[in-house]
Design goal:
The chain is mostly helical. The protein folds into 2 domains: 39 residues, no CATH class; 31 residues. The longest helix has 26 residues.
Length: 72
């Protein structure tokens, strides 16, 4: 009889790698598409999201421009 942590394992470790790939590449994008396709955002939601995206992009460009002299 085997002892240790692997003794009670039903699914082998190698199978979990394949299951993880299935979830990441197939099931998660399908879930995101389904959630996006069935939602109906309001104008307020779109303005808030657009403002957040614009703020993040502006911050990224500003940091990139500020760090340019350092060669980063």
């Amino acid at each position: 009889m085997a002892t240790g942590a692997a003794a009670g394992r039903i699914v082998p470790r190698e199978a979990w790698v394949q299951i993880d790939r299935l979830i990441y590449y197939i099931l998660f994008p399908a879930l995101m598409f389904q959630a996006t396709a069935t939602s109906s955002p309001t104008l307020h939601d779109l303005i808030t999201l657009g403002g957040g995206v614009a703020a993040i992009l502006t911050l990224g460009f500003a940091l990139g421009w500020a760090l340019r002299p350092l060669g980063v």
